């Protein structure tokens, strides 16, 4: 059982592949307990090679070391409409009432050509990746190869995690196969500069307190801490220390909705006051964009004839989350510009999030 005030436990996922029924059942039970408690756990013993993790993290640092003007050549907001490429610092506000976030990102996904039905019908996060030119990054082909190899390895792991999640809900291991077929997932390389000493710490975030939009997230951390998970039982923030080779796994809003709130999509944030640069790589597994999510069998509470939520497609659920978080940042910038025109500087009010 997960203890209140305990950081997300590290589980040995090799039990899933072991052929040992007792070990596999223990893993299922442990994952279920985490999903009921805080919706977070960590895994080792997975098939993603440690060297591949190191290689992609090295490329993460190389990319963000490029001059800003070079990164802006593949800005996701100006170079395409399908959410691939560079994301400028302070582009998002996930926690209402805080300042724009101190992070920059680089969005990568499956290589979806312009002839693909997803691209033609403008499905969410579906299109060709945007890469630096060889003039900017001479070894860019290696960057592409490593990124896509890592992406596909983690997406395959996500599919295995969903099999375990199915078992935790007393469903067949194959229950989510239709949802997985044709799935969309997004990988973000992330860079968090250290928080300036004079920043208003109650308002400045690397990434604000939020829940993820999709089904599950698989996060690779480097060596610098900063990730914190809110513990609902103790009402405190718990640090999730980086563990070499381990992935942090958490449920998103879509899985919470799917389980009729039986499982938890939990609040988490990043505050980097380490004095060092922090790098991380989340892979957000959304699912087939056309799949309709409604309450899972066995998740209705006694007396309920239908779930708490209306059915929704995967695509619409993710778009709703994007609209809210990016819209806040754009509104903040508009308000700030108006205040500057008046010759005043606005003060952001602190608000409670949890």
SSE map:
Blueprint: E1 10-12, H1 21-37, E2 40-44, H2 50-64, H3 68-71, H4 76-79, E3 85-87, E4 104-108, H5 117-120, H6 140-168, H7 177-180, E5 184-192, E6 207-210, E7 216-221, E8 227-231, E9 236-239, E10 247-251, H8 253-258, E11 268-270, E12 278-287, E13 292-293, E14 312-313, H9 314-341
Parallel strand pairs: 1-2
Antiparallel strand pairs: 2-10, 3-4, 4-5, 5-12, 6-11, 7-10, 7-12, 8-9, 8-11, 13-14
Helix pairs in contact: 1-6, 2-6
What would you note in describing this structure?
With 354 residues, the protein is of the alpha+beta class. 31% of the residues lie in helices and 19% in strands. It has nine helices and 14 strands. The protein has helices spanning 21-37, 50-64, 68-71, 76-79, 117-120, 140-168, 177-180, 253-258, 314-341; strands at 10-12, 40-44, 85-87, 104-108, 184-192, 207-210, 216-221, 227-231, 236-239, 247-251, 268-270, 278-287, 292-293, 312-313. An eight-stranded mixed β-sheet has the order 1-2-10-7-12-5-4-3, with helices on both faces. Strands 6-11-8-9 form a four-stranded antiparallel β-sheet, with no helix packed on it. The chain starts with 9 loop residues before the first strand and ends in a 13-residue tail after the last helix. Mean pLDDT is 92; it is low at 345-354. InterPro entries: DIOX_N (IPR026992), IPNS-like_FE2OG_OXY (IPR044861), IPNS-like_sf (IPR027443), Iron_ascorbate_oxido_reductase (IPR050231), Oxoglu/Fe-dep_dioxygenase_dom (IPR005123). Keywords: Iron, Metal-binding, Oxidoreductase. Belongs to the iron/ascorbate-dependent oxidoreductase family. Residues 183-287 form the Fe2OG dioxygenase domain.
